[in-house]
Design goal:
Length: 248
């Protein structure tokens, strides 16, 4: 049996999540900050209890946000022109992997994605917003008495997996621009085919699943682009937290 290569997390991220890696690098290099717009009551609770609650995706303010990402993904995956390079590369690395990954993703839609995904959303904070914030965000999330909590951005990129939560930028794409991003990712995987082939088949399948899952969860219509949103995503069944607790 051929020994498989241990996964290199940074390299894998560059292959399967090129847009997120690029956006995170640009954010860190610019020393940007995040902001969380909310009501005064919720802000007091967050500061007092040192807790931020996450919302199940099925209970989000606009559940169609998730459906938009899913529709974009379906259109790209069903397109022979767009999906053929990706499927061919996966099958060249591990025979039959493209179909297996597709079935694994479809099986996980109801359970691991819709029923086991919680999110908290923050926005990129611009320096010229220090005094007054962003009007559209006050209107959408501030309530009658609003508060904007400005956050240190570096904590979002902590490499620790103890919380079982992961940050990703939102991509504001329609079907056309989503297709371009999808093809770019397919080409990135194709360019690293030899390395992908050296990885364990089941590991690659899970990377493909997470790539497709992220595309669904972190794609919004371009009409929302002013929000400059990032999402903190947790799936307790898939990625349980590893923090000590008095109840454990």
């Amino acid at each position: 049996m051929t020994a498989r290569t241990p996964p290199d997390g940074d390299r894998i991220a560059r292959i399967f999540f090129p847009n997120a890696v690029r956006r995170a690098r640009e954010f860190r290099e610019a020393g940007k900050r995040f902001v969380y717009y909310t009501s005064a009551e919720t802000a007091a609770s967050i500061l007092g209890k040192r807790q931020v609650w996450m919302r199940l995706v099925k209970g989000m303010n606009d559940y169609m946000e998730i459906e938009h990402g899913l529709e974009c993904l379906k259109g790209a995956w069903d397109s022979q022109q767009l999906a053929t390079p990706l499927k061919a590369t996966l099958d060249a690395c591990h025979a039959g992997l493209a179909k297996e990954a597709e079935e694994f993703f479809n099986a996980g839609l109801a359970g691991m994605i819709r029923a086991d995904t919680y999110m908290t959303c923050v926005s990129e904070h611009l320096d010229d917003e220090d005094s007054h914030g962003r009007l559209s965000m006050w209107g959408a999330y501030g309530g009658s008495v609003g508060v904007a909590l400005v956050l240190n951005g570096t904590v979002m990129f902590n490499e620790s997996a103890a919380l079982g939560a992961y940050a990703s930028p939102v991509a504001y794409l329609d079907r056309v621009t989503f297709a371009a991003e999808f093809l770019m990712t397919a080409r990135a995987i194709e360019g690293e085919a030899e390395y992908v082939q050296s990885l364990d088949r089941d590991i690659v399948k899970h990377y493909v699943f997470n790539m497709l899952r992220t595309a669904v969860l972190c794609t919004k219509h371009p009409g929302f682009s002013e929000e400059r949103e990032w999402r903190i995503v947790a799936s307790p069944q898939m990625h349980p937290d590893r923090l000590p607790s008095p109840t454990r």
